[in-house]
């Protein structure tokens, strides 16, 4: 769980389709990758994230990253720091964003 209430107005969601600004309320979404997908990230970022920045590699973004190339890895990333998650990669990744409460949760 990450809490940054004073900065939540800057958070937006980005996916392979486009961008959606969150300005209030509670939001939940799930991502389920295709079985042959080799690598993907699911995350949130401030609007200030640069066009070429990667999720989790800046102090303005957080993500869960799945890599299925040579071995399965599952990790949380923020500010270019990686925390390996010692659990089985789930079939889908959920993200709950409570804008008014100032937090988001990966599940």
Would you mind describing this structure in some detail?
- The relative contact order is 0.28.
- It is globular and about 40 Å long.
- 0% of the residues lie in helices and 47% in strands.
- With 107 residues, the chain is mostly beta strands.
- The N terminus is likely disordered.
- The protein is built from no helices and 10 strands.
Instruction: Give the SSE order as H and E letters.
Output: EEEEEEEEEE
The fraction of residues assigned to DSSP E strands is: over 45%
Q: What's the number of extended β-strand segments?
A: 10
Q: Enumerate how many helices there are, as a single number.
A: 0
The end-to-end span amounts to 10 Å
CA radius of gyration is: 13 Å
What is the overall shape?
Answer: globular
Question: What are its keywords?
Answer:
single chain; 107 residues; mainly beta; six-stranded antiparallel sheet; four-stranded antiparallel sheet; 10 strands; 0% helix; globular
How do the helices and strands line up, and which of them pair or pack?
Layout: E1 2-3, E2 11-14, E3 19-21, E4 26-31, E5 39-46, E6 61-67, E7 73-78, E8 81-84, E9 93-98, E10 103-106
Antiparallel strand pairs: 1-10, 2-3, 2-5, 4-9, 5-6, 6-7, 7-8, 9-10
In short:
The chain is an all-beta fold. 0% of the residues lie in helices and 47% in strands.
